[in-house]
Amino acid sequence: MPLTLNASDPAAIEQAAQRLAAGGLVGMPTETVYGLAADAGNASAVSRIFTAKGRPSDHPLIVHIPPAEAGDWRASVAQLAHSVPDFAVALMAAFWPGPLTLILPRRPEVAAVAAGGQDSVGVRCPAHPVAQSLLKAARAHGVLGVAAPSANRFGRVSPTTAAHVAEEFAELGDEQLLILDGGACPVGIESTIVDCSRGHPVLLRPGMLTPAQIEAACGQPLRERDEAAPRASGTLESHYAPRAKVRLMSGEQIQAALDVLGQDAKHIAVYTRTTQRAARAVVQRRMPADAAACAQELFAVLRELDAIGVKLIWVETPPEGAEWDGVRDRLQRAAA
Ligand code: TXA
Ligand code: MG
Known about the structure:
One of its GO terms (biological process) is tRNA processing. One of its GO terms (cellular component) is cytoplasm. This protein is an alpha/beta fold and about 325 residues long. It has two domains: about 5-235, Alpha-Beta Complex (DHBP synthase); about 245-335, Rossmann fold, CATH 3.40.50. It has helices spanning about 10-20, 45-55, 75, 85-95, 130-140, 160-170, 210-220, 250-260, 290-310, 325-335, and strands spanning about 5, 25-30, 35-40, 60-65, 100-105, 120-125, 145, 175-180, 190-195, 200-205, 225, 245-250, 270, 285, 310-315. Helix 1 crosses helix 5. The radius of gyration is 20 Å and the shape is globular. It starts with a strand and ends with a helix. Bound molecules: threonylcarbamoyladenylate and magnesium ion (MG). The site of magnesium ion has 4 residues, from loops.
């Protein structure tokens, strides 16, 4: 089993920072989801991430950095990225530390393997206090940035608690993975990704920041991604998949299907905002009416329903409105 340490103990943070500096793997809480972290400047450390996740080596990772000293974001990304456009700096100023990843032209100090061979690099300054303490402590040991994908096996649901991470990598020993337990992640779905390497901002992955917020902060229209955009594993059609089959339906469709099955409904869970009449065997979870609350619990709910052993998860389609874009995106991928 991996070693899990309580992140409120400063000695645990220091131990984790030393692991990173020595080329080891650390389960790192962030405000979005838990990351599987390694020194972004150490190619063999980064390749351990790909092996542990079973992730194809051409899928780039996000590099995490501590907050800028004196708020100078341009200086703080300068060692990882070159030719950083003004609109990207405006986005950093508006949303960092926070759930936003920016794709920028990569400097050679970032291991090419961390960037999946791309000439760009994804950079994010997380808002979670444990992530920030770890990134600062690692820097004191010479670690410039920390590469961290979500700490799940390739294609599976992202982890939002330390226990989820331990479950995903149960076969790794305590020498191979140290997990910092920083509690449940407050945002719950992965960061919004904006490509800033093409002269104009392009939305690669929706998250909890809305397009309107991003456009207001950078003063430019946000373009949708096109075919030329680099491959992003979070943008593969089938991703975030639980073992159970997920289907998105309206509340009425779910009720109609439950009515047809009646007492024969078995191995089914429903996750709905509307109240459903269902046989007792049907597992019912109430979807929060608030997008942020739904995002926060979404992956934990999918994992919990998987653990119960249901075969079908019928999810009520989220409401329209940009604040639901991130949740809608993850559910559509879980259902694909
Ligand atoms: O919230 C998050 O972003 C979490 C936490 C741990 O920070 N991380 C995360 O990492 O979701 P991951 O690897 O599961 O998803 C990162 C996404 C992938 O879809 C990857 O392809 C994309 O970011 N990405 C990273 N670097 C990129 C680059 N240089 N160009 C294009 N896409 C990139
Ligand atoms: Mg992921």
